[in-house]
Amino acid sequence: MICRGIRGAVCAETNQADAILKATRLLLERIAAANDLAPTDIASVIFTTTADLDATYPAQAARELGWTQVPLLCMQEMSVVGSLQHCIRVLIHWNTERATEEIQHVYLGEAQALRPDLAEQGPLVTPKEERG
Q: Are 131 and 17 in contact (CB under 8 A)?
């Protein structure tokens, strides 16, 4: 089995714990569904947030989804002038037999601007559209 990376990103609506957790849960749920991902196959997860998000740790959302045995780490994204605000990024280290080109990376809402080349992989929606 090989360890591969799954990337994704989403923007929280505000710097409030509930908004950060909601956006992170949505992102993780979409990544898991797109890749048939089981927490038992995850080696570790790294989350980053932009400096304007400090109300809670995005890793809490993973714990709430039952990822209790997965090593999680939260860090601050480097600050670049003009970069996307309220952004949560994730890198999941996944033990899988899948080839690199079979992995579905997920960028939601405004975060699609980070990787527009991946938008063709599948339907990407904004967190507002998910609320229905």
A: no
Contacts 24+ apart (CB under 8 A), 34-38: 34/104, 34/106, 34/122, 35/6, 35/94, 35/98, 35/103, 35/104, 37/6, 37/92, 37/94
Residue-wise pLDDT for 29-43, tens only, equals: 999 999 999 999 999
Residue type, position 122, single letter: G
Question: What ranges do the domains of the chain cover?
Answer: 2-124
Structure pTM?
0.89
The two tokens of residue 9 are: 């990103």
Q: Which residues contact 37 (CB under 8 A, 6 or more apart)?
A: 6, 31, 92, 94
Amino acid at 55: A
Q: Which of 56, 62, 39, 58 is nearest to 48 (CA)?
A: 58
* CATH class entry, domain 2-124: alpha beta
Residue 36 region by backbone torsions, left for phi larger than 0, else alpha for psi between -120 and 50, else beta: left
